[in-house]
Amino acid sequence: MLIEIGTWQVPSENSETHLEVAQTLVVLQRAKRDEMLYKEVRFYTEVDEEASVEHWMYIDFFENLEDCQKHWDMLEKDEGLKAALENVMSQIVPDSLKTSRWIEKDELRL
Fold first, then answer.
1. Mean pLDDT for the chain?
2. Poorest-confidence range of 19-23, 71-75, 94-98?
3. Residue 11: strand, helix, or coil
4. How many domains would you assign to the chain?
5. What is the SS3 assignment for 105?
6. In this predicted model, what pLDDT tens digit does every residue of 34-81 receive, in sequence order?
7. CATH of the domain at 61
8. What whole-number distance in Å separates Cα of residue 68 and Cα of residue 104?
9. Which of 42, 67, 80, 82 could tie 62 with a disulfide, CB 3.0–4.6 Å?
């Protein structure tokens, strides 16, 4: 199992708009669920009232690295998904997106 984690920030005043464009991306992916290679996706938020930003995080679960890479290739090739992803990215604080990939140690699974 592999997970990809992405974190980013959104200015608090753009919170509602960001949620709407993120929902659009999710709806498009649900419509193509059979083509999506992730096993599961989760989104989380945390509000930082002192900094006037909202912290966002996604966790995508994949069977392996190859499926993860194919997934991102598909997002770049499908014009509707690509446009929706670009719209999401336009809402975030510049340079705040950070991603990492983690491979599960099966022998340590509880």
1. 93
2. 71-75
3. strand
4. 1
5. coil
6. 888 899 999 999 988 788 999 999 999 999 999 999 999 988 999 999
7. 3.30.70.100
8. 14
9. 67
Q: Which domain holds residue 7?
A: 2-104
SS3 content of the chain, % helix, strand, coil (to 5): 45, 30, 25
Q: In whole angstroms, what is the distance from residue 91 CA to residue 54 CA?
A: 11
> What are residue 58's DSSP bridge partners?
6, 43
**What is the spatial distance between Cα 102 and Cα 61, in angstroms, rounded to a whole number?**
10
32 in any annotated domain: yes
Q: Is residue 109 one of the residues assigned to a domain?
A: no
Furthest C-alpha separation in the chain: 45
CA distance 85 to 25: 6
Q: What is the Cα–Cα distance from 26 to 7, expressed in whole angstroms?
A: 17
Q: Within a domain: residue 110?
A: no
Rounded Cα–Cα distance for residues 43 and 28 (Å): 16
List the end-to-end C-alpha distance of the chain, in Å, as a whole number: 14
Is the residue at 45 inside a domain?
A: yes
